[in-house]
Design goal:
Blueprint lengths: L8 H18 L15 E5 L2 E4 L4 E4 L2 H4 L8 H13 L10 H13 L6 E5 L2 H16 L3 E5 L8 H6 L15 E4 L14 H19 L4 E7 L14 H12 L2 E5 L23 E4 L11 E5 L1 H6 L15 H16 L2 H23 L3 E7 L2 E9 L4 E2 L8 H13 L1 E2 L1 E3 L2 E4 L7 H19 L4
Parallel strand pairs: 3-14, 5-6, 5-7, 7-8, 8-9
Antiparallel strand pairs: 1-2, 2-3, 4-10, 9-10, 11-12, 12-13, 12-16, 15-16
Length: 454
């Protein structure tokens, strides 16, 4: 018996032990108190599965950081990276290279409207940084609005835009960012009783925020088309169209952050396609090549691109449009189209995950709400359904959530947990059988969460 990488379990175990030893000695982990973590070692991956350092196979319902949309070790993407490495490993970004040109074409063909110019970055946070810079330079304004319950990245501007507690240690109040409440009916800030009221009142709140901040001072509004890490709150009908109208009214740039929700995750190429809205700038990363090689970017409208026709854009990156990364993007997008992977995500969401998660909610008192679309779902876990008291505090964790994560792993399921939420976000290539397997494992693990309910 061998693992997908050709190692025997014994060899993989030895390799994992050595890797873990070196990791704890030398690696500084993100978002972590270094002495308090016990990171899992992954020795092999294939499709929708990973193997840990103890040789256990786990169904990956996290897609790592919600980025392996095409699954692990897709042969066409692996082959494309190998072929590119044999041809042209790297080139400075001022030079044309075929992989970058073709990746830009394929992305531009799929972005909404006329977002036909692509600026490449190394990841999502840099994409947000540059989108904001473009908006500020284009408008001559500085202030940017972003919603609470959001995540836009860990770099300076991106983390200040972020509307969750990771912003707090990095926020000195001088980044030119103003936060507002977005729609979230389950925990409404607007005393709404239905989606129509939530949408109308959230838009009225945003309009008032714009008025009080001064429309002529605001360069951009940055929104995740469907917020990801913050809870997968699908906007109610009319909300994003209303934001678009407010931006048009006041000359404000609308930036759609599609870093997590883009490239098939929601059952469409981009989440904003569900709402028939065209932003001025669109940021992407993660699913563009499933993270096989770091890549992100900004898709740019003609009006903003024209700002820099005869005026140099003051920004760049050594690895912008790196050949290995863009070759992986070309292979990923091509495979997604040829293999109908986006359509598969939509079908799995509509036929398996959505119905299956709602069935779990009927059986488990710990599930307060099920939200999502495609392969992009969240379970809002509560201690008390009547009061909607969360199973972990905002910005923190709890014994219940820790036990739930451990039970999932013991059952053979790798999950994405944030605060009181369990996110169900398998690769877009997940089969119906694999999705049902994951639901069965979740059904088993959620009994642990139920023990903490009233």
């Amino acid at each position: 018996m061998t693992l997908p990488n050709g190692l025997t379990p014994e060899a993989a175990s030895q390799q994992a032990a050595r890797a873990y030893e070196l990791d704890r000695r030398h690696v500084f982990h993100s978002w972590s108190a270094q002495a308090q973590i016990n990171p899992m070692t992954i020795t092999a991956t294939q499709g929708c599965y990973v193997w840990d350092g103890d040789g256990n196979r786990l169904l990956d319902f996290s897609s790592q950081l919600v980025n392996t949309n095409i699954g692990h070790q897709h042969p066409k993407v692996v082959a494309a990276v190998q072929e590119q490495a044999a041809t042209l490993c790297t080139v400075a970004p001022q030079h044309v290279n075929a992989a970058r040109s073709e990746a830009a074409r394929l992305i531009a063909e799929r972005t909404p409207g006329e977002l036909n110019k692509i600026f490449f970055t190394n990841g999502g946070a840099e994409a947000v940084e540059h989108a904001v810079r473009m908006a500020r330079l284009h408008t001559g304004r500085y202030k940017v609005l972003a919603r609470y319950r959001s995540y836009h990245g860990g770099t300076e501007t991106a983390v200040n835009l972020t509307g969750d507690p990771r912003r707090w240690p990095n926020d000195h109040g001088n980044a030119g960012v103003v936060h507002f409440f977005g729609p979230f009916l389950y925990r409404t800030q607007f005393h709404a009783s239905n989606e129509t009221e939530e949408s109308e009142r959230a838009l009225a709140h945003l309009e008032q925020t714009i008025a009080f901040e001064g429309p002529s001072t605001i360069a951009a509004i940055v929104l995740e088309s469907i917020p990801g890490t913050a809870g997968i709150m699908v906007p109610p009908p009319g909300y994003l169209a209303g934001v678009r109208a407010l931006c048009d009214k006041h000359g404000i740039i609308l930036i759609a952050d599609e870093v997590m929700s883009g490239f098939g995750r929601t059952g469409k190429w981009f989440a904003i396609n569900h709402f028939d809205v065209v932003p001025d700038l669109l940021t992407f990363a993660k699913g563009v090549n499933s993270g096989y090689v770091p890549l992100g970017g900004v898709a740019i409208s003609p009006a903003i691109a024209a700002t820099f026709d005869d005026r140099a854009y003051p920004g760049g990156l050594t690895y912008s449009g790196h050949p290995l990364a863009t070759a992986a993007a070309v292979a990923t997008i091509t495979a997604m189209a040829d293999e109908r992977i986006v359509e598969n995500a939509a079908d799995i969401g509509a036929e398996v995950l959505g119905p299956g998660l709602r069935e779990l909610a009927a059986r488990h008192p710990s599930i307060g709400e099920v939200r999502g679309t495609g392969v992009f779902w969240a379970l809002e876990l509560v201690r008390d359904r009547a009061t909607r008291e969360p199973l972990a505090p905002y910005g923190g964790t709890s014994q219940a959530m820790t036990e739930l994560a451990a039970e999932c792993r013991a059952a053979g399921l790798l999950v994405f947990i944030n605060f009181n939420r369990l996110h169900v976000v398998p690769p877009c290539v997940v089969s119906a059988a694999e999705a049902k397997e994951g639901l069965a494992l979740l059904d088993q693990a959620l009994t642990v969460a139920d023990r903490h309910t009233v």
